[in-house]
Design a protein that fits this description.
The chain has 342 residues and is mainly alpha-helical. Helices cover 67% and strands 0% of the residues.
Length: 342
């Protein structure tokens, strides 16, 4: 499958192919839900998504790897080195780090705005020193770089049926929705890292504080007020999913099954959290395998149907924007992709 994906994407240089394979391995190993959804994309688009995920995962591991003995200073220096490699890679197309090499190629092919990666690394740096947020507004500023830009990075790869700027807000919201779900699922693990991504104002509204969360985590004792916080956070998360949902229909038809599947699986984590009584401080909620399989099979059926229509030249397979990498777009006479307005 990897060879077919790289051939379809027009990636032939051996070193570059190895870089993309490294990114794919990171996606397969660490992003089970994301990787499953990515396989529903046409083969030529998958390497780019793997590169975007691989870079984000590599940076995240520098900051968050619990098995690492690196000090905060060493992690900060590693991030600075990664940023320097990123700048060089995007400017000259050369990098020693495989994930940067693949990312630079993807950015060049699809014309992705470099500022999205700068904003991402800025949020990663804040994780080294910031352990909590006072309000959803403060958290939102952090999540612009850590999550919203991921959706914006993906848009040129996925393609849209109209002007890209019309889909941008929804794409950004979906990135935020996914990360809010991760925050809820991983709240116990994040506390172990010295962080809490639930705003202090939300905790205060339910009569608890961070110390209470830490006590619950360390003792295994439940608290109804903490459950209230988590229930409210899940409701907020669902509202963000509702904001993101209209954007799915704005994507290129061949990309919709992938994003729809990711949407259903990720929002399903909230259902699993609720079904488990919001016990996320003590164990990780998991979407049942049977549910995951059913959603994946539905996504596969949708993907096969759309591709069949596209091969026949039917309307639903026709894309107006972002239908091919920037480097090859002229060769296939596809319409030009609009510049991002965000």
């Amino acid at each position: 499958m990897t060879v077919r994906e790289l051939d379809a994407a027009g990636v032939h240089d051996p070193a570059l192919r190895a870089a993309y394979i490294r990114c794919r391995d990171l996606n397969a190993r660490h992003g089970r839900t994301y990787f499953l959804a990515t396989r529903l994309l046409p083969a030529d688009r998958r390497p780019a998504v793997h590169a975007l995920y691989g870079f984000a995962r590599h940076a995240d591991d520098i900051v968050d790897d619990l098995d690492s003995t690196a000090t905060p200073g060493e992690r900060a220096r590693a991030l600075l080195d990664l940023e320097a490699q990123l700048e060089a890679g995007l400017r000259h197309g050369r990098a020693t780090e495989p994930v940067i090499r693949a990312l630079a190629d993807t950015v060049d092919r699809y014309g992705i705005a470099p500022r999205h990666f700068t904003d991402f690394l800025s949020s990663m740096r804040s994780d080294l020193t910031v352990g909590g947020y006072a309000s959803y507004e403060d958290l939102g500023r952090y999540m612009h770089g850590s999550a919203a830009v991921i959706g914006l990075q993906m848009l040129p790869v996925l393609g849209t049926v109209g002007p890209r700027e019309e889909a941008s807000a929804h794409a950004a919201a979906l990135g935020v929705a996914f990360q809010l779900t991760n925050f809820l699922r991983d709240v116990g693990e994040d506390l172990d890292r010295g962080r809490l991504y639930l705003p202090a104002e939300l905790l205060a509204a339910h009569g608890v504080d961070r110390a209470r969360f830490e006590w619950s985590r360390s003792t295994g004792t439940r608290d109804s007020r903490i459950t209230g916080v988590l229930r409210a956070a899940a409701a907020h998360n669902r509202a963000v999913y509702r904001t993101a949902l209209p954007g799915v229909a704005m994507l290129a038809p061949v990309s919709r099954p992938c994003i729809r599947t990711a949407f259903v699986l990720y929002s399903g984590i909230l259902d699993a959290i609720e079904a488990d009584g919001y016990a996320v401080l003590h164990r990780r909620a998991v979407v049942p395998r049977r549910r995951r399989t059913a959603v994946a099979l539905d996504g596969l059926a949708r993907a096969v149907a759309v591709r069949a229509m596209s091969r026949r030249g039917a309307g639903p397979g026709t894309e107006a924007h972002g239908s091919a990498p920037a480097r090859t777009r002229a060769a296939v006479a596809a319409p030009a992709v609009r510049e991002e307005a965000v």
